[in-house]
Amino acid sequence: MTQDELKKAAALAALEYVEDGTIVGVGTGSTVNHFIDGLASIKDRIAGAVSSSEASSQRLAAHGIALRDLNDITDLPVYVDGADEIDAGLSMIKGGGGALTREKIVAAVATRFICICDATKRVEPLGRFPLPVEVIPMARAYVERRLYALGGKPVLRTGFVTDNGNQILDVHGLRITAPHALESELNQIVGVVSNGLFAHRGADILLLATSTGVERLVRR
Ligand code: 5RP
Questions:
Q1: CA of 28 to the centre of ligand 1 (A)
Q2: CA-based nearest residue to 96, from 107, 88, 86, 87
Q3: Which residues have any ligand 1 atom within 6 Å of their CB?
Q4: pLDDT exceeds 90 at position 220
Q5: Where does residue 77 rank: exposed (0-12), middle (13-18), buried (19+ CB within 10 A)?
Q6: Residue ID of nearest Cα to ligand 1 atom 10
């Protein structure tokens, strides 16, 4: 199977976690695009979707799936999203698509986070994939200096502006053995909007597509 076929297998497996009559939280990326396409086939059974990016909103709308405002919602049973890396504790690096802040917000509201990945995303420890950090533009150079002091090598994602009007620093060279602590430390840097470590709010269930099928791992 190709990597894209594996992404699709994981995405379609997530459909069974969608509860009838509820609003569904929807992440961002090529794996989630398969989930959105699958969601279209059961759109009459759901009450709509909350989206984590303009790109996902456009795809949902193109399928005729009603978009809901997160501020109007208190009950979001399930959030489905991909990851760039995921470890044994179901902590993740996310934000390869630059949507980390809105993804983190929607995930915070959701009761369960279902992560959908192909097998290449399962790593130990996190950090081979550069960690995205969303920054307020005027703070970029200051945040870069702080990231160097932590042992990382930040690289500005050129030609890219987030849906929130900010910039992304991709931090190379981190070996992340304590994701909870690093997530908290990065959040303390003034000018950081959010970082791509999802440890405090990690995944509850990982649907990992391998060549022999989709494995289900539950957060302990
Ligand atoms: C976007 C994300 C994505 O979930 C992550 O980059 C994985 O993307 P893909 O499914 O295309 O491999 O965090 O901000």
A1: 6
A2: 86
A3: 27-31, 81-84, 94-100, 103
A4: no
A5: middle
A6: 31
Over residues 120-145, mean pLDDT: 98
Alpha-carbon span 199 to 167, nearest angstrom: 22
What are the distances in angstroms from CA 69 to CA 25, 36, 94, 117, 173? 11, 17, 22, 26, 37
Q: Where are the alpha helices (DSSP H) in 26-96?
A: 30-40, 54-62
How far apart are the C-alpha atoms of 50 and 148, rounded to whole Å?
36
**Is residue 52 over pLDDT 90?**
yes
CB 129 within 8 A of CB 174: no
As separate numbers, helices (DSSP H) first and strands (DSSP E) second, the chain gives 6, 13
Q: Please state the rounded mean pLDDT for residues 45-57.
A: 98
What is the atom index within ligand 1 of the atom nearest the CA of 116? 10
How far does the centroid of ligand 1 lie from the alpha carbon of residue 96, in Å? 5
The answer to whether 33 and 60 are in contact (CB under 8 A) is no
Helix runs in 41-187, H state only: 54-62, 100-109, 140-149, 179-187
Q: Count other Cβ atoms within 10 Å, centred on residue 2.
A: 8
Q: Is the pLDDT reported for residue 94 higher than 90?
A: yes
Task: Tell me the pTM.
Answer: 0.97
Which residue minimizes the CA distance to atom 6 of ligand 1?
Answer: 96
- Choosing from 8, 53, 84 the residue with most ligand 1 atoms within 8 A of its CB, the one to mutate for a pocket test is 84
| DSSP-assigned letter for residue 200 | T
